[in-house]
Specification:
It is a single chain. By secondary structure, the chain is of the alpha+beta class. Strands 2, 6, 7, 8, 9 and 10 form a six-stranded antiparallel sheet that branches. A two-stranded antiparallel sheet has the order 1-3. Helix 3 packs parallel to helix 15 and helix 10 crosses helix 13. The longest helix has 22 residues. The chain is globular and about 60 Å long. The protein starts with 20 loop residues before the first strand and ends with a helix. The relative contact order is 0.10.
Amino acid sequence: MPPSPAYRPEPRFFDLGPDYADAVQAADFPQTLLRFRNDRAAAEVGLEKLSEAEWIAAFGRFQPLPGQPGPIAMRYHGHQFRTYNPDLGDGRGFLAGQVRDVAGRLMDLGTKGSGQTPWSRGGDGRLTLKGGVREVLAASMLEAQGVPTSRAFSLIETGEALERGDEPSPTRSSVLVRLSHSHVRFGTFQRAAYLGRKDQIETLVEHVRALYHPHVAPGDAPGLLGAVVEASARLTARWIAAGFVHGVLNTDNLNVTGESFDYGPWRFLPRYEPGFTAAYFDQTGLYAFARQPEAVFWNLTQLAGCLKLVADAQPLTDALNGFGPAYIRELRAAFLMRLGVSSLGEAADQRLLDATLALLREGGEALRWEPLFFDWFGGFASSARALSGPRAKAYQGEAFDAFRFALLEHEPNRIERLEHPMFAAREPEEMLIEEVEAIWSAIDAQDDWTPLEAKLARLDGAREAWGFSA
């Protein structure tokens, strides 16, 4: 069965030429068992009509889709925990294709675990099945919470026994495909700057401007940086409102559209904890929850440094300086979004943000993070539900009084969303590590996929209930 008429192949990254990527081949896997297929995302790019055999051929064997020239592994450098590494690049993934979605956006079909490339650096180029399951869960939760995120498009188990130092081995293998709005990373620019290639920086600026930020004038590198700063500020604010910790905010893990991707050691906050980290190897807390804005800004300064090859320093500095105000503005908007209320102006919105954080800090383990937004979604329209629910005892005292006063000022936004059956439940959908491990344990021990499927169904319901737009 061919793709639907909505399928619009447009391999634009390939137009950049061999200076930016290398043609590669996928690994020949011993088996291909389809474990997850995102038909809703597939419908957005005209691929929902593929049969299972065609899907596996495209996303397990990587036979090129119509109009696609074949996979390429992208070249990039990056700072990893603030140490520059010129030996990066797509080491276990590649760009499998590019298509237009129903909104006309250029979207990438990128892989993880598809085999070795020239940039594998001695690695096996594979992805554990557990890692694939974790990425499916992370992307689904973040999408439900309104965070700009890549989406897990396909997960296929590939029948290999992998040795890993950070989980029991041998462990099962998989190949993941994600649908993402650009894989052009900050590190893509860093590689060109490292090589002193002003011409490559100019080409990248025009490529990114034209495809992802067309409102920026041709050749306006500071204007492009400003657009990336704004998008990155929005992303960071949405992470914070979601209680999400990315874990590895290196420059090769941020892209030019402000959409998060590549979920390795991620976690969601069990409770308010500014120093909470997701990666066991982040021993200094560089990428802790509350330090994520600092990390993103530091990475933006590295991108700005690359653009100095084609632009004056002062306009680039001015664009960078927009991050702080943009982040605070976006953080207010993100918290209002999560509470389901309308803006009342900067001062009142800031009072609500401050009061919410103060209540989360005081509530601690008894309140946790996600339940507050669930209990009080819709503002005071939810007061009876919140005050009679399982966290009623947490809603008292000075911190709560300040929160209640600030929330009372704000009108509900689209109050009809409270009619969704999800809000009749006593507990929200969370994504704490204990549940993630339980879902994996069922797969690992009994090959039981029903807990994962049930969780994804509930997250899809939560996405519909919240009605957020990333």
